Each structure stands twice: as structure tokens, then as C-alpha cells.
Protein: FAD:protein FMN transferase
Organism: Inhella gelatinilytica
Amino acid sequence: MTPTLTRRAFAGVSVLLAPGWAQATSELQRETRALMGTHVRVLVPGRRDDVAPALADCWFQMQRLEALLSRYRPDNPVAALARAAGRAPVTVPVELLAVLRAARERAEQTDGAFDVTVGAYRDWHFEAGATTNVPSARRLAQQRPAVDWRAIEIDGSQVLLNRAGMRLDLGGIAKLPVLAAGLQALRRHGVRDALVDGGGDIGAMGRLDGRAWRVGLRDPMAPQQLLGAVSLEDGWIASSGDYERSFVRDGRRYHHVLNPRTGWPTEGVRGLSLLAADYRVLNGLGAALMVGGGERTGWLSSTPVDGVIVHAEGRRWQSAGLAARWATG
């Protein structure tokens, strides 16, 4: 008999827990905090007293890394790079260097469809509570010359944004390393089974009561529903979509995934989910595929990534390997 599932919905996916599994575990610790502009949840099987130190370190490491990489803080290296843009290099921490190197590699692979310098389009605001105005085409054209990943210069530990007005937006590539830092902290404390859920991005290690974690992929055409559930064991899911961090003006939806070449939100893809064993092969691909209109699936052919892409008209593309990942029962 297929167990009834309870759905804990977040931005792009849902963690599905069968009640029978949860009851079989003596305890399942669940903690949720606001982080990276979304709600991050950590699930760890075990007694509270046994896993509390691991959970504390998990949150500490994720919050520490978010503070370094966020574009919303005035006192971190990302802000310092923006202030020095076009003038002088800045010495940055190794964690930021690693993210910037990964961003440059993804930008080169995708012909600039992924570009962290979209932060120069600074008049867009999608965060909760922000004033949601639509920038003028003239304003976006003025900012466009500052958008070019090739203008990020890295020399040892020094980084220069070599054009005035350049700003970084690492949202498309920083979240997975932050979640990975949380899982690594848990592992250092001896935790072998855990799941971190960061608003559409999920990392899992081990199992829950001897079974792979079950994760539901949200349907971008009807976000209150799921496309289905996949099994996840020692792996990652990265999701992107136009249904979260968005607003509507004059009947048109504007969302946070921007086309670097135009400054306007992407069109053609409502959402997608990508799966891989290593988060590094996923990082930045979701945004790039949305910029590419979902037609550049060749970017996935040379990587061990499975996924599903839902186009604006409802057409769905699915990788050949995804069929084996759908959970049943």
C-alpha cells in the first residue's frame, strides 16, 4: 500500500515524508530559519541532544558563508568590490574566490547566458518588502555596459571589477555552496543522514529510515501541484522558476532571473529542476537554461545531470536519465 504523503512546500520543491517513515524514526529534528532570501530547513534523524551540536555548527557555517556572499550587506567583500569597481582590486576570502572562479567557468561554458555581473541592473528589486518598480528601457540600456563576466579580473586573492558601475549578484551560484557548507558541518560531527532544503535547492546525504529521501518537484505551470517525486540519496537538486520572487505589473509577470544581454526577466521557460550527485556540476545551469529559453539542453549533454524543463506553453523536456529517478510507491 502506498503511504499517504505530507507535502512541506518550499520555493521550487517539496520534501515528501511518509508518516510511516517518520514514525519509525525515534526522532526527526527539523529546524527552519530565514537565510539567503528564503526559508532554509534542515532535517536530521536522531535525538535532539545527540544532534544539537551538529545542527548549531551547520547553521553557523551557512550563516557565515551567506554573510560573505550576499549582495544585500554593505559590509562584506561583495559590497567592497562594487565600491571599488573600475578603480582598484580588492583582496577577498578564499570562499568568494571559489564562487567567482566557478561563475567564470559557467559563464564561459554558456556563452555568457550565466553572468553574475547582472547585479549592475540594480533597479530591479524582488526581495520581500521591496518597492517593485519596473525599470525603464533607457535605464537598463545605461546599465548594460557594466554587465560582462569577462570584466571580472582575478589575480591570486585579488579581484577587480574593471568597469565602473559593476556589481555582483551571486544568487544564482552561491546558494548551493552555502547549503553544502551546512552538510559538511553535519558530516564533521558524525551525522550521516540529513537533508538541507533551501527554497528550491536541496542537498541530501544518506537516507531516512533506510530509504532514500523523497523530494517532490513543483509544477511551474501550477506551483501548488507537483510534477512528481524523485528519490534522492547523496545528491542534489537545483530548481529555478518564474513563479517565486516575482511581481505582476499591468498583467505581466516580472521575475528575478534576468537576461544579462537585455536586463529584462527571461522568457520562454516557466521553471526547471536539475539533479546530480555533485552540486558543482549544477551550479548556475538553471539560470543559464532559463536565459537560453530552455533550448540549450546541449549544455547538459557533457555533464552527469538529469532534469526537467517546463516551457511557457506547457511543453516539457525531460532528460533520458530522469525516468529512473522518479520515485514510486
Notes: The CA atoms of residues 266 and 291 lie 5 Å apart. The chain has two domains: 6-68+172-324, 69-169. The chain is about 30% helix and 25% strand.
